[in-house]
Specification:
There is one protein chain. The chain is mainly α. It is built from one helix and no strands. The protein starts with a helix and ends with a helix. The model has no long low-confidence stretch (mean pLDDT 91). Keywords: Membrane, Transmembrane, Transmembrane helix.
Length: 29
């Protein structure tokens, strides 16, 4: 259960970080 919760949090963090990085790259393009 804890491992499943951790994997879900990691996936959400990756998605949030990816979207933020994409926004930064788009603003600098």
């Amino acid at each position: 259960m804890i491992a499943e919760l951790f994997t879900n949090n990691a996936l959400n963090l990756v998605i949030i970080f990816g979207s933020c990085a994409a926004l930064i790259l788009m603003s600098f393009w």
